[in-house]
Amino acid sequence: MKSNVFTIMKKEFARFFKDRRMVFTALIMPGLLLFLTYTLMGGLMTSLSGGDQGAFIAHVCNLPDSLADRLADEEGLQVEIIEEGQIGRLRAQIEAGEENLLLVFPQGFDQQVAAYDAQSGLAAPRIDIYYNSSSAVSSMGYDNARAFLDGYQYDLCHKFEVAQQDLIPPNAPDYTMNALTGMLPMLLLMFIFSGCITLAPESIAGEKERGTIATLLVTPIKSGELAAGKILSLGVMALLCGLSSTLGAILGFDNMISGTGANFSFDGIGATEYLLLLLVILSSVLLTSTLISLISAYAKSVKEANTTAMPLLIVTLVIGLLPMIGGGGDNFYFYLIPIYNTSLGMSGLFASDYSAANIMISVVSNILYACAGSYVLAKMFRSEKIIMTK
Amino acid sequence: MEEIIEGNMEEVIGKYMERGWDSLRELLKVENLCKTFKLSQKQQKSQQTHEKTIKAVNNLSFSAYAGEVFGLLGPNGAGKTTTLRILSTLIKPDSGSAILDGFDVTTQPYEVRRRIGFLTSELKLEEFFTPDYLFGFFSSLYGLPPDRVRRRKEELFTRFGVSAFAHVKVANLSTGMKQKVSLLISLVHDPDVIIFDEPTNGLDVLTARVVTDFLLELKGLGKTLIVSTHIFSLAEKICDRVGIIMDGKMRACDALQNLTANDSLEDTFFALHEQVSREGGLAQ
Ligand SMILES: Nc1ncnc2c1ncn2[C@@H]1O[C@H](COP(=O)(O)OP(=O)(O)O)[C@@H](O)[C@H]1O
Ligand SMILES: [Mg+2]
User: Fold this and answer.
1) In the prediction, which pLDDT does B3 show?
2) Which residue of A155, A166, A347, B92 lies most exposed, with the fewest beta carbons within 10 A?
């Protein structure tokens, strides 16, 4: 009877959604935490990089003509020319943290440089940089000034020229996006997995532990119906939890990188890729909830189920990162390996480098594994050793 | 006819006069039932034995007739719970058979489950839900039509005084109320056979009284009851026939009148117990 599967699912949903504490800890909190973590990280990054609060002001005394144009080209930098008489006051302001940077060139710097002979043994013309290392902004200003002057010094020697030729294709994702898409399969697998792991042990090992599952098994429900009802409802709830985490992560990530000026979007991904991605995720949610249900049915208590599932979580995370190391992306047989096929498929889809046939193989094999697993789960529900633990 | 009914002819006729032909219908027939458990080391220690296995039910046979209360009477560890679990299809026997209303508990468990209500303090309800929700949930597992569910819910909730608590989570109910809810949930489908493991165990006196009265009421409705207990007074009060079970074996099985013809049930039991231990039949 299909309606029994439905009855079980309805009960599982009622158990979950009517429990405010459960909804909060399993559904809302993970997404919220990810969102807050990334947003805070973004805030930290922006404040470290000096923030968006207008341009960085560098005070310069005796700015040589040769440098005036170069300095004007620097992005986010505003040069304020000061007189020698103001040096003392500015030094005090930098010390007090009110100003950040002062560069003092000797008068006639250009001529001095032109006349200077490195072999002469005489002192070279000197530039003084005043900053305050107790201020992050000031320190960073010093670092930038230092790098700028080093570059200038290097160009002055002019023994050779380095020309930068970036062969980046017009719509290639940038470096941070590459790292991000590499991590995505792992993140998604983790979100799905943690959804299952917060729900399945409670729903199966918990019912065993509290003796409520035996109450079900003296009714005419078939063990297969119970197994299917449990797995399907867990799958739906794990999917929702995963969705919440994913949303939290994406929104938070957007906040995080918005400060750095990078742009978060998958340009190469179209409707087909999204559809395949959905299939991959659905099939792997089904498989994961089956796996954790099996573990939970085998365990004698919720605690035991949790500790048994943990190593599997770690293995899953490692497998999720494997495609980043590379290889195997076009080996047909790898798409038959549960979890690994999901992470291969996802990373292929994110990178727009995949074979639809391989993706379908992984989807179909995941569904078959889940069916086999639910058959085993049904058998376990029929076993007195599993159910009658006392 | 003699084959079917143990006990004397007078009683059979008396019963027949009282309740008609149905009282001769063998509703449950248990034959040579055996169940052995493997003992874990922890269990070996707690039971102070070096045996690796225990014969919880050892070649047990008995019958129960339609409309009667059959009592399995025995000390703790005699195998009562194990027997009742087999009858309610929760566990499978190693050998032997039990036929309930024509259906084999091992090969036709779903048919058996439709016809029985199994009550025991071990079967728990999910405490998160209300009696009202659980009643509906279990009713749909039995595939009962909604209007019948509504009528039965009304009837049982009123009978046990649960109506006022119908929408309170089970977790927040008193122990006595929880037990009443458990009881009525196992009867949602109005089964013909009620299997009850230690009906009054762990109940406060008031609830125990409600439960015993209810069992007699069920009997009055023509239900067949299989009850296990180690309490002599309870057996005397509600049983028509009693099987005395020790160490997994049936040591006596007769009408209550016959077992108590000369002595109280308690004295009969201890006489039997002594006899069996003298014969070395009891592992002590
Ligand atoms: N699952 C089990 N595993 C091991 N031993 C068991 C198990 N269930 C019951 N027993 C043992 O079988 C014997 C009969 O138990 P039980 O049927 O519960 O007796 P009663 O209900 O008459 O007290 C006891 O010795 C008990 O320890
Ligand atoms: Mg018992």
Assistant:
1) 44
2) A166
